[in-house]
UniProtKB/TrEMBL annotation:
Residues 46-138 form the Methyltransferase domain. One of its GO terms (molecular function) is methyltransferase activity. This is Methyltransferase domain-containing protein. It comes from Virgisporangium aliadipatigenens. It comes from the Bacteria. SUPFAM superfamilies: S-adenosyl-L-methionine-dependent methyltransferases. Transmembrane segments: none annotated.
Amino acid sequence: MTDFEAIKKNQRAGWETGDYPRVGNTLQIIAERLLEAADVRAGQKVLDVACGQGNAALAAARRFARATGVDYAVNLLAQGRERAAAEHLEVRFVEGDAERLPCDDGQWDLTVSTVGVMFAPDHQRAADELVRVTAVGGRIALASWTPQGMIGELFRTVAKWAPPPAGVRPATLWGATDHLDALFGERVEWISREPRHYVFRYLSPEHFSSWFREFYGPMTRLAGTLSGDELARFADDVAAVARQFNRAEDGTVAAPAEYLEVVGVRR
């Protein structure tokens, strides 16, 4: 049996390392697009699952929805509260586990996650929770990195240095339509499933590598275990991913990363 609780404890320590919002805040456009795709309405109750620093919750609040974000990394929740206060937005941030949401059945009109719930180690349990807390006739909207995209390649690169725990399926499977069908079955009618791209923009491939190693918690934690030639090789491997997907010809990085944007109706 896979010990998902031990895995989540280790994951949480990773997300609480570094300063993930320095990366996550750059992804705000994904949340804005997702809330538009979900056709969120003012006054709706919206839950942002595995919210991190609150990208989707803030996007919902900007549209006058009643937004709540839930995450198990308390440092990210604190930054979400700071962001909401700075923008004078009413957002509630709650500590909680995506596999055991602190919510009543059918409590939410719209349940969303932007590259967040995909990291829950028990995919089925996380999907079951999304369904449980969403009202019948309500919507579930997700944005998840795809296996074949840039971030899928980045995760495979990192896995060569730190193999994932046995029994944990790749997070990027959430970016595959057949996996979503298996997880949700007939409980959700998908009304939109669109592959989209977020463009990572950095000064250079080396800058991309440095930024992720310094601020992206799980990679920051891994880099902290390396030194000398090993650290240099890891840095080069990460930069190589940016080079592989880069479309810029001026020395900077403009690298499209594919993600799957889906919207479904809870049956």
